[in-house]
Amino acid sequence: MSVKVINSEDFANAVKDGVSVVDFNATWCGPCKMLGPVLEKLSDEITDVKFYAMDVDENPDIAEKFGIMSIPYVAVFRDGVKVDQNVGFTPEASMRSFIEKNK
Fold first, then answer.
1. Cis before 91 (ω within 30)
2. For 79-83, which contacts have Cβ atoms below 8 Å and span 24 or more sequence positions?
3. Backbone angles phi and psi of 58, in degrees to 5
4. Residues 29, 49, 53, 71: which is the catalytic one?
5. Which residue segments constitute the domains of the chain, with CATH numbers given?
6. Residue 56's CB: how many other CB atoms inside 10 A?
7. Catalytic pick from 21, 32, 35, 76?
8. Catalytic annotation on 80?
9. Which residue numbers mark the site Contributes to redox potential value (predicted)?
């Protein structure tokens, strides 16, 4: 598995079934760049969850819909409904726990 980049048009369809983790980020964001490899690694290990990444600058409508003011912003969706979020860089072990508790 890997983290798939999606946009506003893909979003609803991507998160509608099962558990999805969406990393809202931006190219200029240092902590986002640090979190990317962590989520890539976890996407290989947690195979019953779908992983996505979305650039908030390119998709401001989705960022606005969820009130995203700070990035990186990682949200967990279950069957299209946001069940939890985590803001800021999070080390691998903590991110794994965050995802596992929301599956």
1. no
2. 79/16, 79/17, 79/18, 80/12, 80/15, 80/16, 80/17
3. -85, -15
4. 29
5. 4-101 (3.40.30.10)
6. 21
7. 32
8. no
9. 30-31
Token pair 């969706």: residue? 77
pLDDT digits (tens, 9 = 90+) for 41-93: 999 999 999 999 999 999 999 999 999 999 999 999 999 999 999 999 999 99
User: Would you state the structure tokens that stand for residue 89, as one six-digit string?
Assistant: 């860089």
| 12: its two tokens | 């609803």
Q: What is the DSSP string of the chain?
A: --PEE--HHHHHHHHSSSEEEEEEE-TT-HHHHHHHHHHHHHHHH-TTSEEEEEETTT-HHHHHHTT--SSSEEEEEETTEEEEEEES---HHHHHHHHHHT-
Annotated catalytic residue 29 = yes
